[in-house]
Specification:
By secondary structure, the chain is of the alpha+beta class. Helices cover about 50% and strands about 25% of the residues. It is built from 4 helices and 5 strands; from the N terminus they run ααβαββββα. The strands form 2 sheets. The chain has a 3-stranded antiparallel β-sheet. Strands 2-3 form a two-stranded antiparallel ribbon. The longest helix is centred in the last third of the chain and has 55 residues. The radius of gyration is 35 Å and the shape is flat. It starts with a helix and ends with a helix.
Length: about 190
């Protein structure tokens, strides 16, 4: 009996040692680094598409469109989101039931002029029959977009200043009219009394 317990203890220790020494293996991927981790510094996007019966050119166009969509959402995106949450309880004690409904709806729309965007890298994943592309926007276009955004901010600031000045002028005129009414209204009342 003691032999069986010793043998079981040795087997348990051996199992723990074997599983404890086993290193976690990272899942292998045949995809290039730029697909898994897009390059930083600059404006770029990764897109992919399955190569189907329409052929490689169609997959390339679709993948580039997906990459440009990613770029446009990076630069400018309008998001509408609606969350609905409903909880209702019925019954008493052990017979009580809870009904819960949660709804989350989101819509994203982007509108950006991406003139100057080009496909920089292409990779065909033959295992999955999928084409991956890296699309980047030329640095000159990035500068133009930044200048346009800066100009829009300055223009809106000037508009806000103009509106503020208009408000202050209107406020000043209203105060002046009140003072005139107060001064001349009293004078008219005095003249009418004489």
């Amino acid at each position: 009996m003691k032999k069986i317990i010793v043998i079981m203890a040795v087997l348990a220790v051996a199992c723990v040692a074997v599983t404890g020494c086993k290193t976690a293996s990272k899942p292998s991927s045949n995809l290039p680094e730029w697909v898994l981790n897009p390059p930083e510094g600059g404006i770029s996007g990764i897109g992919s598409a399955k190569v189907g019966p329409a052929g490689m050119q169609t997959a390339r166009i679709e993948a580039a469109a997906n990459a440009r969509d990613e770029i446009s959402r990076t630069l400018n995106v309008r998001v509408k989101n609606m969350v609905k949450n409903f909880t209702e309880t019925t019954g008493v004690g052990d017979a009580q039931t809870v009904d819960k409904v949660f709804t989350n709806v989101s819509k994203q729309v982007s509108k950006v002029d991406l003139s100057g965007s080009q496909i920089k890298k292409v990779f065909l994943d033959e295992k999955n029959n999928e084409l991956h592309v890296l699309v980047a926007v030329n640095p000159e276009v990035v500068t133009q977009v930044a200048d346009a955004m800066k100009s829009a901010a300055i223009t809106s600031m000037k508009n806000d200043q103009a509106l503020w000045q208009k408000f202050q002028a209107k406020k000043g005129h209203e105060e002046l009219e009140k003072e005139i009414e107060k001064e001349f209204g009293e004078a008219k009342a005095d003249a009418a009394a004489d």
